[in-house]
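Bench log, entry 3. Co-assembly request; chain sequences pasted below exactly as received.
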Amino acid sequence: MSTQHDRPPLLARDAESGGTSSLPRSARGEAGGDSLIPPDAEPEATVERILGLLSKSHYREARDLAAAALARFPDHERVQWAWDIFEIRGKATVSEEGPEPPRDHEFAWLRDPPDWARGKWVALVGREAVAVGETLAEVSASVRSQNLARRPLVHRVG
Amino acid sequence: MADRESLLLASGQPFTTSVARYLDAHPEIREPLPRIYVEFLPQGTPLSFIALLDTGGHYCLLNSAVVDEIRDQLTERISSVELQTAVGKLAGDLYRHRITLIAEAGKNLDLEATLFVTADWNGPSILGYSGVLDRFRLALDPWTNRFYFGPLDDFGT
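Structure output for the full assembly:
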């Protein structure tokens, strides 16, 4: 039976063998996941270890430790919070909005911007610059003051 | 029901649900190789921007001006981090924040992303693998510069 932490199989053969899990192997007890966490470890201290690894950009180690911590302390709120940093399922949802018109005109404009736009932030709707400014804040304020039919694509022209 | 622009698995279920075109060169950076820039909308602004898809990168790294635009919407701080980038080590903070990928066929995709927030990044915004690209399905068609995307859904487990 799958749990909320299982991920769908990546290959058909995974499905035939019962699927895969998003928990790293070490955390599933297949390669000594328990060894990541001393027997007398406290959950709060383990969360601090996870954040310490993350702060040094040791992402995979932090993720493995978070998964092992979740296996050890499944009901601890902070451990669940720490695991959620790495959880990949349920983080993307189809919006009610869209589709939107293609950006062909904006992209074409950006590939060959006019000289007056150099160094400026520009808000584009189609080939029209609906707001221009030295800063993004100026452009944002201008856009917010207009009742535009379409969300502009904003870029600082180099 | 799958949109006609969806990519389908052999089972008939959608692999991706939406599609948008991408830019293959940054307008202001003369790069020797093509890259992939897609449109995205950070929560908290009516403006959308382009960002580099970077499978070798971490997190969503926003240009500092874009960070300023959404700063009062950044409420879910995770921790402080040091991030090694192509221009050296950057210090900043991780936040949970919603961004939206804009579709020109199918629906937009809302994504709970991990943002790396620093005042020291003035380069292009980047959508890295950990905390962003690992949270949805994607496919690329270099023939038409199309970027296909959709949520991670169960199929058979």
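Chain B has a mean pLDDT of 91. The first strand of chain B starts at residue 7 and ends at 8.
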